[in-house]
Amino acid sequence: MTKPLKIVIPTAGFGSRLRPLTWSRPKPLISLAGGTVLDILLNSFRSIPNFDEVEFVIILGSWMGEQIPPYITEHYPDWHVDFAVQPEMKGQSDALWCAREFLHGPMMMSFSDTLLDHDFSFLGEEKAEAVALVKPVPDPRRFGVAEVDAAGRVTHLVEKPQSIENNLAVVGCYYFQEAEDLVGAIETQIERNVSLKNEYYLADAINIMLERGLKMRTEKVDAWLDAGTAEALLETNAYFLEHGRDNSITAQVEESVIIPPVHIHPGARVSASVIGPHVSVGEGASIKGSTVKNSIIGPGTHVTHCMLENSLIGHSVTITGQTGKFNLGDNSWAVQ
Predict the structure, then answer these.
(1) CA quadruple 73, 75, 79, 81: dihedral positive or negative?
(2) Does residue 1 carry a pLDDT above 60?
């Protein structure tokens, strides 16, 4: 019997570049394009053949990781999701080591703030032992890159290369035919203490596998998006609103102008306002007498008589009589 594909998602990061939003919730549960970062990530894999048989493994951290399991239970009650815990922040390989009891057979690994818009149906006929998803970039020096030989086979992963000749940036998503081989390489990595600043990086474990003869190819992704900073989150929000998350046609508003694309939750209330483009409005939010552009308005937030642009507004915020760009964490207020 063929083992089900495991999709492994480490989520233990602090998300410090998204504060104040991440003071009260983990980065995967930040609002994005009518859902959360985690929703976008989970649903990006739906093109995998036999997706209903896929099993997810989510690796939780000690920083508010306990919020994720109840979210999964509420929103994905029929999905098979296992949870592992990474007690200390000791790197990507360590996260996978903490989940090793679930890692058997074919697996994919994807970082929680790396969002891809890609067709994964290639996995149905995949013959390679491993696949590194890559994206050509103009300047790869701030990324990790995959070095390939003349046949297109990966020979080595290099973190932050000095030259720009090889521009195949690895996007943080990998497929392995046998998860056990990766676990074995991580065990060797830990035994050798191949680490940087007390963190074990996945690229080093993969390089051990390549040294052992792993046959890995690259797969160029269609779109690689980031959710790690405020600016990147807004750009990613705009992208997904333009690529399938827009509900402007069915949005229920009162005496308002909608400039697509937007996503307005059916449980939100919008009146006497101009919304869009590139705006997400969460469940239970209310916007009255305001103009909102290129912004994310979290669930339960109240916006009254404001002109907001390029703003990230968390959950249950009250903002009244304000103009400009704001980044407000959950349960805060800005009242004139």
Answers:
(1) negative
(2) no
Q: How many alpha carbons fall within 13 Å on the CB side of residue 29?
A: 23
**For residues 133-154, average pLDDT:** 83
Cα(112)–Cα(41) distance, integer angstroms: 7
pTM to 2 decimal places: 0.90
Question: Which residues, other chains included, contact 250 with Cβ-Cβ below 8 Å and sequence gap of 6+?
Answer: none
Domain 6-226 has CATH 1.25.40.340: no
Q: Which residues contact 88 (CB under 8 A, 6 or more apart)?
A: 62, 94
pLDDT of 126 over the 90 cut: no
> Comparing 300 with 21, which gets the higher pLDDT?
300
Start and end residues for every CATH 2.160.10.10 domain found in the chain: 246-335
Q: What is the DSSP string of 137-186?
A: -S-GGGSEEEEE-TTSBEEEEEES-S-SS--EEEEEEEEES-HHHHHHHH
Burial 238-259 (b: 16+ CB within 10 A, else e): bbbbeeebbbbeebebeebebe
Cα 32 from chain centroid (whole Å): 10
Options 3.10.580.10, 2.30.40.10, 1.20.1300.10, 2.160.10.10; CATH for 246-335 is: 2.160.10.10
Chain mean position to CA 25: 15
Pairing of strands 223-226, 144-148: unpaired
Residue with tokens 């940087």: 196
Residues of the chain with CATH 3.90.550.10: 6-226
Classify 313 as helix, strand or coil: strand
The pLDDT mean for the chain works out to: 90
Angstrom distance (rounded) from CA 93 to CA 29: 23
